[in-house]
Design brief:
single chain, 14% strand, 22% helix, 8 helices, Collagenase (Catalytic Domain), 2 domains, globular, alpha/beta
């Protein structure tokens, strides 16, 4: 879509797009962004600077350069559930989520071939990866997963966990340096503001330039998973795409529908068609241009946006079911990478892992990983923090000749291995 010029237009568009939260609202990021624009002059200045830099960067710089690797920490918030149960999610599920995030950002997702032919040419490998942090802000060794009982935060499960409450009482006390890490908070629920209804929100994120204390993303725990390893609390939203969507916001992507009343809004990306939105809402069009359910391509609505012959509902920044999302566009890639060149530039210089989780066992090589029906092998010298998720019954040959069944294995640069929470094993592997 063409750029809206001036932040005033953006604020007006978002105001027009605000609507009451549905029984299950996929995302609340755009509303929080509007509130920050209205109340935080510094955020307004940072957004103006970032938009100007992004437009200039997209015009002047080829965005197909270095691959950016972002250190990531998952903060698991629980109410005393045993490790690996209930809200205290197992590390294996978090690793599966990280794997899905990398597949989605790398155009390695197993359903990428479902992207319609008309959009295949703009479907992008963003050249952005995410890895588990290996050092805390204080320099201590970490697995990249923290676990916090709510009692240590002084909060109660019976409280109203709306976005402002979560920002103040959960994110701010636990946030790692927002300039050096992507902070992902995994919690039981996100209530609508003031708990004014029984509706719930799946996730929200801070846009670049947000206050340091809540510059991360929040997702509900039943959304954590992957296409091949869905969350056991089964739903159409248990395959990891809520995290993909919210990280997109954290890297400055808007909803593809533009968040404008009646649809046809601007997401500041030139290769995502304007869209009316609606799909599963009786075909009448969503109030702010988003689609729901799992539409069939080509999708259009009466009074469709000028020039749009099919809506890009399978884009990660729409609202469709997880299994029906398949792509970021080249324009979205350029926008996200511009943020890492701009307001999130410190991330370029942080180090954590090499190649990240891959949860495919068989099929064609994915990066440097390859598997057969009985063995997994590495096609190069192992590097720190390489991870592969091994299904039950398969085996991995490692240097000391042992085999491992059903573990998630991570290379340890020192050649040692330890069994971490959730069965995560750090190990030095050898090519098979």
């Amino acid at each position: 879509m063409n750029h809206i010029k001036g932040l005033f237009c953006l604020i007006v568009a978002l105001m027009l797009g605000i609507q009451f939260v549905n029984a299950q609202e996929r995302c609340y990021s755009h509303i929080l962004m509007l509130e920050d624009l209205q109340s935080n002059p510094n955020f307004v200045r940072e957004q103006n600077k970032l938009e100007a830099f992004t437009r200039k960067n997209q015009l002047e710089k080829d965005q197909s350069g270095s691959r950016y690797i972002i250190p990531t920490v998952f903060h698991v918030i629980h109410d005393g559930d045993a490790l690996g149960t209930g809200d205290n999610l197992p590390a294996s599920l978090i690793l599966a989520q990280l794997s899905q995030l990398n597949q989605d950002f790398g155009k390695e997702n197993s359903n990428a071939d479902q992207t319609p032919a008309v959009f295949q040419d703009v479907a992008a490998d963003t050249d952005i990866e995410f890895c588990l942090a290996t050092k805390t802000p204080g320099g201590a060794t970490t697995s990249g997963i923290t676990r916090t009982h709510i009692s240590t935060l002084g909060v109660l499960s019976s409280d109203c966990w709306d976005p402002e409450y979560i920002r103040t009482n959960i994110m701010m006390p636990l946030m790692w340096d927002h300039l050096k890490y992507l902070n992902v908070f995994i919690i039981e629920r996100i209530d609508v503001p003031g708990c004014s209804s029984s509706g719930q929100i799946l996730g929200f994120a801070a846009f670049p330039g947000s206050a340091a204390g809540y510059d991360g993303i929040v997702v509900i725990n039943r959304s954590i998973g992957a296409l091949e390893t869905p969350n056991p609390v089964s739903s159409t939203l248990s395959f990891g795409r809520t995290t993909t969507h919210e990280v997109g916001h954290w890297l400055n992507l808007r909803h593809i529908g533009g968040d404008v009343a009646g649809g046809c809004g601007d997401d500041f990306v030139s290769d995502t068609p304007p869209q009316k939105g609606g799909s599963s809402q009786n075909g009448t069009g969503n109030d702010t241009g988003q689609n729901y359910g799992c539409p069939t391509h080509p999708l259009t609505y009466p009074g469709e946006c000028p020039g749009t012959t099919a809506e890009m509902f399978m884009n990660y920044m729409d609202y469709v079911d997880d299994q029906c999302m398949t792509m970021f566009s080249n324009g979205q890639k350029n926008r996200m990478r511009s943020v890492i060149e701009g307001s999130r530039v410190a991330l370029k210089f942080e180090k954590c892992c090499a190649r990240n989780p891959v949860n495919r066992w068989t099929g064609p090589p994915v990066g440097d990983w390859y598997g057969t029906d009985t063995h997994w092998s590495l096609q190069r010298t192992p590097m720190p923090c390489d991870i592969v998720i091994i299904p039950s019954g398969k085996r991995l040959t490692i240097k000391n000749g042992e085999t491992a069944l059903g573990y998630e294995l991570r290379v340890n640069a020192g050649g040692q291995y330890v069994v971490e929470d959730g069965g995560v094993m750090c190990i030095d592997v050898a090519p098979y």
